[in-house]
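= Protein in question =
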Amino acid sequence: MSLARRLISAGFSDLEKGERFLAARELEGIDQEALFAGFHLAASPDTALQSLVRLIEKHPDLRKLAAADIDTSEPLYRVLGASEALGEFLIRHPEHLDAFEVVASPEPVPADARELRARLLRSVQADPKARRPVAGLSGPDAYAALRTAYRRGVVDLAVKDLCAADPLDFMPAAGAELADLAGAAIEAALAVSRAEAGEQFSAAEVADVGLAVIGMGKCGARELNYISDVDVIYVIEADELDDARANTIGTALATGISRAIMSIGREPGLWEVDANLRPEGKSGPLVRTLASHQSYYARWAESWEFQALLKARTIAGDAELGARYEAAVLPLIWGSANREGFVESVQAMRRRVTDNIPADEEQRQIKLGRGGLRDVEFTVQLLQLVHGKADESLRHRDTTSAIAALSAGGYIGRTDAAEFDHAYRYLRLLEHRIQLFQLRRTHLMPVRDDALRALAKAVLGPFARERPHPDALLAAWQKTKRSVRELHERIFYRPLLNTAAKLSSEDARLTPEAAQGRLAALGYLDPQGAMRHIEALTAGVSRRAALQRQLLPILLGWLADGVDPDAGLLGFRRVSEALGTTHWYLGMLRDSTAAAERLCHVLSNSRLIADLLEVSPESVAWLGTDKELAPLEFAAQWLEITSKMSRHENPENAMRLIRLIRRREILRVAIADSAGLLDQDQVGAALADTDRAAVLGALRVAEGIVAASGPLKTSVLVVAMGRQGGREIGYGSDADVMYVYRGLPGVPDEEAQNQAAQMVGHISNLLTQPLKPAILAERVLMVDADLRPEGKSGAMVRSLNSYAEYYRRWSLVWEAQALLRALPIAGDDELADDFVELIDPIRYPAELSEKDVREIRRVKARVESERLPRGADSARHLKLGRGGLSDVEWLVQLLQLQHAGKHPELRTTSTVPALEAAASLGFLEPDEAALLLQAWRLASRIRSANVIWTGRASDVLPSSRRDLEAVARWCGYQPGNAAALEEDYLRLSRRTRAVFERVFYGQ
């Protein structure tokens, strides 16, 4: 193989320079096989080769290690290929090349923090055992010695990091060791500063001043980068000196630390020591006493400062003083979530960070951009601060441990936590490898192709032999960013966080003592009973119990917002127990933007929905997304029914499935209605589709039953009447129907009628008869055929010809009025068209005689006097009472009978479009039509609300304040406005009656 091909195979970018350096005299005599074996390990073989040649020039003995077997030379090649800056350091200090005389370990052991501290202190000739060490060196010599010792520590760590079998797994340990190394450097810098302060102040004064260095940010959390600002806060105290003198000396000590770490010198500075997170920031004093810190945090601190204190840890100086500082700020940190607007302020700060990224950096940001490290960190910290006040297991400084704790406590789902953890480690690994190359503070993805190639190799473990293309690296990064952003937006903006943040720590812990008082204060009528439910839900150490303990303090408040929180909590317990260990249920309530609040709302405001959810708890899954709550159209329901019928020939089994689908869809509509996703017309149409699908299914099952004993001889049509025909039904509506048959060709009419009668009888039985086992909580669809010709005395089913003959000879005007609502819903389509063609001239006559008008008025008056239940208050009866549904519908139908023959706009089975058409044609004044429509809608809504609230149909406006409150809320009134609903209905119905009497009776 040619040299050029070998260079390409090893990953070299600059072939000309590679050939030139390989020919350098420093490499003469070294087996090229050994060299190329090493270069294959290097992230950047170009850099490794150049650094190796320069190092051998300074230290020829390195030739032996460069030519050694790969197990021996691996640390050398990996470090030189991953860090140009460490190569430069070793060129300046070849005495530290012994760092490579180690055996690479796939599972390296992190350095001991105490040993690092001792090593750095000894580098400046300070005693590690002293209470307040003072360096024997000072000035430039001390600075150079300290910085050299620090960088030797970085080389040692780089060897372990780059040779670790799994870089992602080792990443937290690398961050911790870097933080410990930074703490050790600051400890040594403080020792140097004490020595230098002794030249300005007396030794006794300097010794009297205790200084604790509090690490903040990544250093405090022990997750530091290879090169990063080290954020600090300085705390001082003195036994003998007054505060002013102590502050002067403390400021000198703090300033001396920065000078030792980052001033210009023959050994370059390490990193910036940043004290801007101190109270008052740059405007505040550099050092403060503990009491001064406490005073500031108690009076002036902003929410972001407590978020920053989450990472606070003593990293150098007076350990006992630092411990007192940590103890003092601990309750402030974990109580900060109770501050007004805390969650919103944290969320706003994250948005500001994103908004302030320079435009040319936005797409390259690993740390600050969308889907970057800050998304992970802000999300984790917000969850910690909100929930950590009650759950001490969440009180971790570092991100990976916090993610694990949040997952263990159920605050993040296991899958989400695993994704978050992997993404965080991957992004940090990218950041580490990018910074390691030149030991420069950067968080930007490189753009040069050779840098991307080196990075793609650097993030792989030592067992990966491939050298990925830059596109693969960028694709993996983009995928990680998308995952992080999706998780961040879903978790960081949880509505539960705002509510949880406002709970006291006692309420959040849900202790029996706190819960009893809170339940009573919230309005639970039986706090002891509620406590029993809570204890049943939260007992034990399971993940489910942990999630319940997290959720219930919030859900109790939402349940209490309902009319019957006690019933709501009982319903929640039953639903929770029914779903058992289902993995998605509690996680959905925790994570969804709407599910938890919707569930609480329906359980404490609707007996009907609560009962349905209890028997079909899997439907709770719909609460998490509006899409799942969209009613299924008739075609979709019918497709499902036909599919199930094809697999279940037994009529009872088929009918069970049809009725279960109907029960399910009623629940879906009710929940969507409660969530405000449907208007009143959409609710009526959706319920009508559900009933239509069930009736058509029953017809097909009935046909199958009849066909089992002989061939089919007839087709049957089911015609909806009344509100069912108008597609404006409520949750308690029956199905008013008529049946039409047509015998098949060649079949005698008597045989066809008999078979049709059998089918019709089966339809009613199939829809209403009890099944074994029973369908729990089913609202049975009662089929009522009393509107057929001759009413209860007439034949249950008639032929088309029979209907034609009856309507020609004997029909009364009220039957024509009933036909205004006739709408075929199931059966033969051709027969349906023929039936509509038959009845249209009857229900839309060319003119209506005065005699017929008087008859309609007489029948209406008779209905009012005879059908209104005895003792019922006409003012409160929604259907037959003064200004109720009957008044509006009869008025509209009279106008249809009078004018639809000449005005096709009135030819509709539904009240609302007929009313609107009557107004547009001038048969009603616009304001009168608006009034009638408002009254009709409100009465219809109240009627449905009665069923929703109690689970039972009722045509009466409730008198009980509690029932009226529940109905008012369903009708869209704010809590506490039951009286307003009552006043609105009575006023509207009174005005509606006046319009009705003027137009209908001509008064």
Observations:
- The two ends are 111 Å apart (CA to CA).
- The first strand starts at residue 209 and ends at 215.
- Residues 167-197 form the longest helix (31 residues).
- The chain is about 60% helix and 5% strand.
